[in-house]
Amino acid sequence: MGPGPCNPYPEVMAAMARPMLGHLDPEFIALLDETNERLRAVFGTENRLTFPVSGTGSSGMEAAFVNVIEPGDVAVIGVNGVFGGRMCDVAARCGAEVVPVEIPWGQPVDAEQILGAHPNPKVIAVVHAETSTGAHTPLADIGAGKGDALLLADCVTSLGGIDVSLDDNGVDIAYSGTQKCLGVPPGLAPFSMSSRATEHIVDRPRSWYLDLNMIADYVTGGQARAYHHTAPISMIFGLHAGLGAVLDEGLVEAQARHQRCGRLLQDGLAKMGLELFAAEGHRLPQLTSVWVPGARLPSGMSEAQARAVLLERHGLEIGGGLGEFTGKVWRIGCMGHTARERNVALCLAAIDELLI
Ligand code: PLP
Predict the structure, then answer these.
(1) pLDDT by residue (tens digit) across 159-195?
(2) pLDDT tens digits, residue range 321-334?
């Protein structure tokens, strides 16, 4: 139940144990094409440029900025947690003039505030699901009001767990990670870019490895594929299977399962007398943040020791708070294959047993 890598779907582990195929083997190319098709389905997009970047979620974040930002371009970025701050760092390294929109942690990014932060930004960026706080920022109003700007969304913790619908929400650039609600080990960054955004891809991005000009032909399908780098074959087997598990269950059904489990967990914690951290009405089902119940911990036990006890006794991993909330907030992930009622029941029982 940690906020990081969740238990993968069993079919994912089986797929990753498959014998290797060559990265230019037609059987592998067909599987990659199918993976991209499945990604379009979970992202809710027709974007041709949709593929898994080789690297963890952070490689998707870098690919998103480095391909469209030229020195001096304005990037307005919502900062309501760690990952918004990280986007500012990445954008600044690409030479952007960064306009951070600071929002109290635990709150969503306000559409009016971010849209009003600059008259003519090239990019407006938000974290759809802030893993550091458990807050959900809705995309639709920002997408509707973006004007000429490109809307960039970090969907690392949202994809597969809550609706992202890139096309309906007006998102131009999105990236995710495999290890959250897709139920796959960490290692790839599902990525998607609208044709509107591809027109802004710079000629010579400040990265060779993430340069979409070179990768795009290879990944968009239909035509000759250029060799760019060796695809991480087993990871793509795993992602293909994880997406298959989500789509076999049904994307809407998988999201409803996350919703049910999140509600059960949050209601259960509240009933136990714990105080939820993220703003009511904006709580993610897949990432629950709660104030550390300091007075209820066994005498002399620190919050970190309490989490270590839960891990050792029950195999229950609870994430600590980040930034200024280190030691003050706990983060409980309930994502992908892990988001099951029985896991929520175990989690609540284990915390209840520990508290005095
Ligand atoms: N963005 C968000 C919202 C995240 O939660 C994470 C990781 O937890 C990242 C970006 C970075 O992803 P990765 O650790 O896979 O590189």
Answers:
(1) 999 999 999 999 999 999 999 999 999 999 999 999 9
(2) 999 999 999 999 99
Sign of CA dihedral 238, 246, 181, 169: positive
Q: Are residue 14 and residue 154 in the same domain, yes or no?
A: yes
CATH of the domain at 305: 3.90.1150.10
Same domain, 223 and 306: no
Phi, psi (rounded to 5 degrees) for 129: -130, 105
> pTM score, two decimals?
0.97
- How far apart are alpha carbons 117 and 161 in whole angstroms? 30
Cα of 299 vs centre of ligand 1, distance in Å, is 35
326 with 297, same domain: the answer is yes
In this structure, the residue with its CA closest to atom 14 of ligand 1 is 57
Q: Which residue among 79, 82, 127, 131 has the greatest number of ligand 1 atoms within 8 angstroms of its CB, and so is best to mutate?
A: 131
Tokens read off for 354: 């520990």
Side chain identity at residue 260, one-letter code: R
Residues 242 and 255 in one domain: no
Pocket probe for ligand 1: among 58, 77, 152, 188, the residue whose CB has the most ligand atoms within 8 Å is 58
Out of 208, 227, 249, a domain closes at: 249
Q: Are 315 and 7 a contacting pair, CB within 8 Å?
A: no
Residues 158 and 290 in one domain: no
- What gap in Å lies between CA 274 and CA 314, rounded to an integer? 20
Q: Do residues 343 and 262 touch, judged by C-beta distance below 8 A?
A: no
* Chain CA centroid to CA 9, Å: 17
Question: Measured from the CA of 59, which atom of ligand 1 is nearest?
Answer: 16
Domain holding 62: CATH number? Answer: 3.40.640.10
Tally of domains in the chain: 2
Task: Examine the domain organization and report whether 64 and 136 are in the same domain.
Answer: yes
